[in-house]
Amino acid sequence: MAIRTVVWGENVHEQKDSIVQSIYPDGMHAAIAAALNENKAISATTATLQEAEHGLTEKRLAETDVLVWWGHAAHGQVDDAIVERVQQRVWEGMGLIVLHSGHFSKIFKRLMGTPCSLKWREAGERERLWVINRNHPIAKGLGEHFELPMEEMYGEAFTVPEPLETVFISWFEGGEVFRSGMTFQRGAGRIFYFRPGHETYPTYHDGNVRQVLRNAVEWAYNPAPAWASVASAPNVPVDKALEKLVEKGPKLHAHGEEGFR
Amino acid sequence: MAIRTVVWGENVHEQKDSIVQSIYPDGMHAAIAAALNENKAISATTATLQEAEHGLTEKRLAETDVLVWWGHAAHGQVDDAIVERVQQRVWEGMGLIVLHSGHFSKIFKRLMGTPCSLKWREAGERERLWVINRNHPIAKGLGEHFELPMEEMYGEAFTVPEPLETVFISWFEGGEVFRSGMTFQRGAGRIFYFRPGHETYPTYHDGNVRQVLRNAVEWAYNPAPAWASVASAPNVPVDKALEKLVEKGPKLHAHGEEGFR
Amino acid sequence: MAIRTVVWGENVHEQKDSIVQSIYPDGMHAAIAAALNENKAISATTATLQEAEHGLTEKRLAETDVLVWWGHAAHGQVDDAIVERVQQRVWEGMGLIVLHSGHFSKIFKRLMGTPCSLKWREAGERERLWVINRNHPIAKGLGEHFELPMEEMYGEAFTVPEPLETVFISWFEGGEVFRSGMTFQRGAGRIFYFRPGHETYPTYHDGNVRQVLRNAVEWAYNPAPAWASVASAPNVPVDKALEKLVEKGPKLHAHGEEGFR
Amino acid sequence: MAIRTVVWGENVHEQKDSIVQSIYPDGMHAAIAAALNENKAISATTATLQEAEHGLTEKRLAETDVLVWWGHAAHGQVDDAIVERVQQRVWEGMGLIVLHSGHFSKIFKRLMGTPCSLKWREAGERERLWVINRNHPIAKGLGEHFELPMEEMYGEAFTVPEPLETVFISWFEGGEVFRSGMTFQRGAGRIFYFRPGHETYPTYHDGNVRQVLRNAVEWAYNPAPAWASVASAPNVPVDKALEKLVEKGPKLHAHGEEGFR
């Protein structure tokens, strides 16, 4: 079965900004989903902010293997309950790809536990992404580096935790650097942050970027069954202990009582 | 100047449970602070849930180098605004030591981005903590292992992100293991999680535990000035770029405009 | 095409010790290879110390995707030139699974850069392996823990670098703990250390252990082309620079000269 | 007591190349030691390749807290026995700062377990080091970035293992990036790799570079007693087990026998 992927798009600038419309007439989410669907092992659909429950119902998330997230102007309009639902699914093992300005999305900040801040400049400058971890699955099919002729600059310090792996580092024409591809894990869910994708440039039409998106979905996919109990804290009673155990000392909890949360 | 340390105690069971009262007549926070103050390089005071703003005013946190956190029954009563304030200070560089049942505190879950769940059993069983990273500052003065004759069991899987360092792993009489000492960093703040400390046992009177607490405060202390702007995302305009830059392409933001959050 | 896997066995105790012979009449390497070949996606053969070039010719290694290593009594008899050859292949992307007493093999110590020392006791005690990273590919199909009724004890501190991931931690009847499954990467090669496998016990006939071995081979396999130039340090001359560059300052190297090594 | 630091210099180009002589008339090692001695908490002396035992006798290393290493043209002339001696001391807890072309030194490659390869260009180009981990002790007193007007370029992929922490990333005028400051630990020893320092430029006279060198020595210093037994693998006999243990099953080793290595 193909990797069931949902591309979530904020879909705001596509409705208001003629430049963005001209580059992404069907929305950025549609362009990203089309890039993914070029790989037959992936089956990508889309969801947007404007849909009921932002298109991310419990049922749909339960049937999603990997979620791709692009947002920018409307982070604050994403319902906290939906964010919690997405977080739970990541913990259970759903993969998550966070793109560009999604660094400030509620879901990414929640999963990182850090500000996720950075420097920025919108000047259409040249970005060159260097592959740091050359045979990493996310770098499949790429050369030693690739370039985007015009992109928004993001500069360090990017306040995320130390990643599991640094896959890409960007060089910018204006003098900055940025860790443009990093992997993380939260619960059973694999997370990849990928920097490029400012809405006024045709970044998601770039062949290398599209290759990275497909690679990332394949990497983030975890075929293991969902870890539904990931957030539960079960009591293991004395008579179920794996080694013979004689209870000692005073107790706070009565037998069979739930723990505090 | 000594390391300005605040020991935050939930102070609930100390008021209601005669066993806890008999072990910690002045509260667990007082016992922990006393352990810290045995080191003259540390100056520890206490704060509790019941105080105004839980004893954690902006002013006080601004003057705190390291915060130690013990909570259990009343995690839900901690005000979200105070939790955000603590999180901001950690990002700025304040050290944080999270103890035992604090694994389910709002502040720890927020900083980890994971459920922080585990298994547990209250049976007064023997815990043996093995030192994994023997010359780590937090293991200063310890042997290869130390024992607590009666403790609550916490068992894996402990759903935190991969740590920077694993300092202790516990062996439990009933057959479980647990990563009992782990380091993390969020923003500029160093975080240490330390497992022992169930309220019905005299754990914070144990010499080795008290040594670990003092070591952890010294390790978590970062003398660098607070990184007040850690969560800001400054624009770097073209005319301030470090390399000569000619602006190209279409723009979303007018000059001088703030970025989206 | 199946994952081309070579199981390397020292094959010493199988020749001399009647207990080991009775458990592994065809050698430990044969038992391990048989476990792997139960998965049709893996094609496992064997190689031993006694063969010419220890069975690891350049040609054979070039056609090996994953190497599994078991050694104990004869680490010192492994030719340094072969060790270097294996290391180069790991850097190029060949996966490596190091088993049990292989912690002291030349190849593992070289790749870790540490002593790889530990505590040990041969007393047939019970080992319980806890799954720390539950949905990790190497834990596929396992429960929360599994047991081996008799194993050699290995105890911490295990002097390896901080791993990328901790997958298993063992509890031992005699009171020790051990990080029994850890992942590393060196160059493009993924490395998994897996603790169980003392030769006087039937460990490699255990169903859970065999499952882990198969999982580990699938995890370690990297389909990317071999990174043959991984150890080379190419000069990038000024006229090949990606950005226009005017050479400045004094020089040590004449144009076209090789760098020092 | 001050941190006993030895600056090891290869001292080859200083003897043969008039440019290097003019910049470092007393040798690069002397300039580096002078930078360190500006901090009274550090007591730095020098050692060179040409001295007996390269100036690194057992006695001297035993009295060294932190070793700083600069080499380039003569890596191959460093005696393997001395390299092993240095490695043992790092494992025991001695700090190690590896500078610039020291990436290809025997000691660094041995501790990393990887090729430590990279790209390079000697063109006197501008390097800008960005601080990634802003309040890290090694970044003390620095701004968000600092520049070196002329340096040799080192470009990724730099084939080292994933570091514990990335402290600096460099931007180069010619279009490359490089992780210029990374921390590692091997055994009890902390290791910092710092990129700048090509011998034909006055890099070690730069104020920011000198600040980093002092910071790095303070960071790498571990006051814990040397872990002399770090490479030993002690047997823990059944009668010394921490839990009561009844020996079971067949045995390979006679009682009291040493383990294999």
TrEMBL record, chains A, B, C, D:
Pfam families: ThuA. Gene3D superfamilies: 3.40.50.880. It comes from the Bacteria. Residues 7-220 form the ThuA-like domain. InterPro entries: Class_I_gatase-like, ThuA-like, Trehalose_catabolism_ThuA_prok. This is Trehalose utilization protein.
